[in-house]
Amino acid sequence: MANEIPVARRVTKVVKKKMPPVVVFLRSLPNWVYGVAGFAFVLPVLVFTIGNAFPKPAPKVTDPAPSKPAPKEAKPDILLGHYAYKEAPPSDLITIAIAGDGYELKLRRAAAQSFERMQRDASLQNVNLMVISAYRSKAEQEELFFTISKQRNQTPAERAKVSAPPGYSEHHTGYALDIGDGDNPSTNLSESFAQTVAYEWLRNNAPSYGFELSFPKGNSQGVMYEPWHWRFVGDEDSLKTFYKGRSVN
Questions:
Q1: pLDDT by residue (tens digit) across 195-211?
Q2: Which end of the chain has the least Cβ crowding within 10 Å, N or C?
Q3: The pLDDT value given to residue 9
């Protein structure tokens, strides 16, 4: 009987399990393949570790391009204490008086209208404002400057104390005029005009009409005191004409 067979003689057949193809393939690979694969896995870690072990050089700072200096404002053109002025356009000039020889005395429209109003208001207070000179062209100023300086044996610097060189007269602008006292003409173009009723009225009232004295005593331009010479500064263009880029007296 089967149970009578000794235990030692019982034989059990061992069935080996079949391995997956992948495992069979991997086992068939030589050992050096595994070494290469392991090195490839470790290499990125090694590179990262070594790279962080040494400080990286600081990035180069590029100096910003030097800023260009702001353009310097052009200095005003000045000659013998007088500033250069452009001639007023003829189309903007209107007649405010006519001289005895028929010569028309003109100012720019804004200045003319303001002066005529000032002249009317002064007459209501029995003050007679008389126009002696107004707009002058460069050609007229040239004759006035050089001809008289020769007649009086004056140097250009001496002449410039009382009259501007051509191209440098406020009269070119059409904003300036010489005013006299119609009731006291002997004081015309003289410092004695400062003692007249007309000058006193101008000193107290002219600013209300946009006029100011061009060359007061001790003016920064070094021009002789001229109580008769007044200029209009009552609008934007006239103000820029006389003050832009210049210091105030």
A1: 999 999 999 999 999 99
A2: N
A3: 46
167 vs 26 pLDDT, higher one: 167
Q: Beta strands 104-108 and 226-232: pairing type?
A: unpaired
| CB-based burial label for 199 (10 Å; 0-12, 13-18, 19+) | buried
CA atoms of 189 and 147, how far apart (whole Å): 18
pLDDT at 134 over 70: yes
SS3 content of the chain, % helix, strand, coil (to 5): 45, 15, 40
> What is the Cα–Cα distance from 164 to 167, expressed in whole angstroms?
8
Angle between helices 109-123 and 236-243 (to 10 degrees): 100
Grade residue 1 by pLDDT with cuts at 50, 70 and 90. Answer: very low
The domain made up of 78-243 has a fold known as Muramoyl-pentapeptide Carboxypeptidase; domain 2 (3.30.1380)
